[in-house]
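quick one before i forget lol
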Amino acid sequence: MRRWIVVGIAALLVAVTLPYLRSEAAPDLGLAKLAFGDPGPVGTTKRKVVPEALHKVDLAKIDVRGEVATAPAWGERTASLTVIPKYQRAANRLLREGAVAEGAIVMTDIKTGRVLVWSSYSAEAPLRDIASEAFAPAASIFKIVTGSALMENGLTPSTRECYRGGKSRIDDSDLLRDERRDKWCATLSEAMGRSLNVVFARHALDHLEKEELESIATRYGWGRDIPFDVPIEKSRYEFPEEANELAKVAAGFWHTTLSPFQGAFMATTIANGGEAVQLYIVDKVKDRDGDIYVGPTERHVLGRAVEEKTARAVTEMMEATVEKGTSFTTFHDRAGRAYLKETRVAGKTGTLEGKGYLFTWWVGFAPADDPQIALSVLVANRGDWRVKGTQVASDMLRVYFADKGVKGVTDPTGGSK
């Protein structure tokens, strides 16, 4: 009898402690390994000055008239930037000639984290650094977060779901499966490409807890102070406790905001196989006595945001946006010929109305199979509009790859001299 009591106690101890042992052995891909708490710049201070070297670098006033892009800083200091003047001029032109109310374009070098374009535009004064602001709703860009969370929960890009409704809104009734009424079916790749709201909402309802969605969102920078050379407004998120409302957020309906900077940060992270790399834009700062700050000379890794296989799967899903989804018409001519026929592109569009604006996003990178640049575009239109974010993104990628001499690619701006 005593022996059975001892065996029972031992079994109970194993049952109680095993979850903790498993937890200890599990790989930590979460917040602890992402050094978002690190102090911003990773360059070298040449001389100690007060205030610090990067104080009040004003990226709303970037000057690209010379061979090197510059921005004013505190007092008589000048910051030399990593921005490429001809790309910056092209970006400025695309926003200006697109007659947008407000907009921003951020383009980064995938491997180094250097910012190649930092363009903000507003049709009304005063000048603002819109690229650093997180006032716009994230809209369907948040499907990248949800897609990543679903991949880490065992789903694949080929996971299939039949659905109905949800084109511009989701009703609770849309979340209930009905074999007679669910006449359309799509894989997760197709759902990402065509931005199918109900497919994402149903999968989130079935597979994701609030904490899982929040974990991925914060690893991509939501609600975090992402290290950078200048202050960046933190994106906001609010995840409802009610399951159906959380599913709607997972599909991109309200409760989240995003800055163009963070869009580029997220795209750069996915393009780097899930590894978060610190972005930087300041190459040097000098005053009357010479250099006081020199930017980083090597890549600085913040940590791993998602598993490499997750990043690969999300990339595959994002490629569907350009191949056969919401960006098809802007990345192809009327005959269906790709403007970037030799280049695979991974991207995601987002569209949402609010605050008197029609907000349109494009976030992604190229080439998808050997990434060079990440791109984040926000366009905010009022009333009649001329361009959306996906059109500006297509043109900006054409500017870059035409400059790189990729066969068959033309610059839609004519070179923006």
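fyi Residues 1-32 have pLDDT under 50 and may be disordered.
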